[in-house]
Each structure stands twice: as structure tokens, then as C-alpha cells.
Write a structure and sequence with these properties.
It contains nine helices and eight strands. It has 264 residues and is α/β, with parallel strands linked by helices. Strands 5-6-7-8 form a four-stranded parallel beta sheet, with no helix packed on it. The protein has a two-stranded parallel ribbon with strand order 1-2. The radius of gyration is 25 Å and the shape is elongated. This is F-box domain-containing protein.
Amino acid sequence: MGPKRQGESSLIRCPADILHMVLKMLSVTEHRTLCLVNQDIRAIAEPFLYSKIQWTWQKDRPDSPPPITQLLRTLLSRPQLAGYITNVRLDGYTYRIDRTGFRWTIPQIPIPNDELDKPIAFIQRMGLPYTICEDYGLPNFGRLQDVSFLVPQGRDEAWDRKIKNTADVLPFFYLPNVQRMSASIQNPDEFRWSISRLPDPAKLVSLHLTHVREGYLRELLAVTKKLRTLRWEWYFDYGVEDQFTTPIIDLPRLLLRFQLFEIL
């Protein structure tokens, strides 16, 4: 048996706990290299390779996106790999600066029509119903404890429009077990909770808010009665000035909010 084969056999014969400690210290590139050695080592290294997926779309390479489509093709051909994935994070620095200021752009991933046949067939095999009238509903995320919905503090393509993200973010306060939340909440013309019943996040102890101005802090603090820490960030955009985006903080209104917070 040659030296290379002996090294491979020695690695496989290591106790599982020691082997896992070693693999946890390796980089993604090293995990990928181990997967190419042989089938036995590949079976050991693949769970580490696919456990955490993090890609960043670089602004200087807008035409070279992360291999998202390649990953989806791999998962379609080997569905068992999806069971190894515990964390997926997609980042991007796809902003541009022009004479109008700082703007975010939305990259596109072109996919030829002939590459859609397998994904379409996979979805059809799942037997998903086409009717929206059946009583299925969405999960309530009853065990979710940490929520982060932060957006950069800068101008984007939709910043000056009337569409706000408030209706998308406020439902997070209805999560039954949420404990820590970071959220960027924009200021709508009218503040309204998602349903008639007010939320009661009894386990929410840490709250980090950005974008939202002092005019709507009262409504948020009134339902977060168990808070221990509150971090609030605001900024003024000279390109946008309305009833909410002003260069001066309304201190009397702000003090009323924090007095209410202390009483509760």
C-alpha cells in the first residue's frame, strides 16, 4: 500500500469525535479538497462543506454572481445534501455612486429556459396544490427567538417612493417566542398593526431599531413591555424631507415615549 493510500486509511480510522474536531477547524476550500480524495472521505467531509453557505456578490464583479444556480442543480440531483445545510447567508456590495447619490442595484442571474426543465419537474413531483382556497396557511415560527431585518442606511431605488416596509416588519412582533430583534422600520403615513389584536411579545428583551423616527416609538414601546435593552438609530437624509424625515429630533415627543417605556 502506497504512502498516499496509507494516509487516507489512517484518516478514516480516526475516532469520529477527533475527526470532527479536525474537520471543524478546516476552511471551506479544504473541505472541498477532501471531498475530491475518495468516496469514503467525501462522505465524512460533505456535511461540513454544506453546513454553512455564505456568498458575497462583489460590486467590482457584477457579472460574476455566486454559484447559486450550480448549488440548486446539485441539490436537485442529490437531495440528501440539503439535509446538511443549517445556515445560508447571501451578502452583496452591489451599490453604485452617481451624480444622484448612493444607490443600491438589484443584480440579476440569467437562467436559460432549457435549464428550467429539471427544477420544474422537481416541483411538479412534489404534488403541490395549485388552489389557494385550501386551508393550509403558513408556519407561525413558534420557536424563532432571534430576528434580524436590517437594511443599509442609505438611498436605494425605492427610497423616495410611497411604498414602505412597515407592513412587512410589524408581524415580527407577533412571534410568540422572539427574544432578540433587530429591525429597520420605515415611517408610513399611517401606523397600523397587522391585525386588530395588538402583539404581546412577552419574551422580547432586546430591541434594536433603525430608520423609525420618534413619532412611532410610542406604538412600538407600548407593546414591548419586557424590554431590558433598547438601541435606537436614526439619521437624516438631506435628499428626503417630509413629516418624518427632519433634521431635528422632537425631544418632548421622544421623552414621552421613554417615560412610557420606564413606567411599563
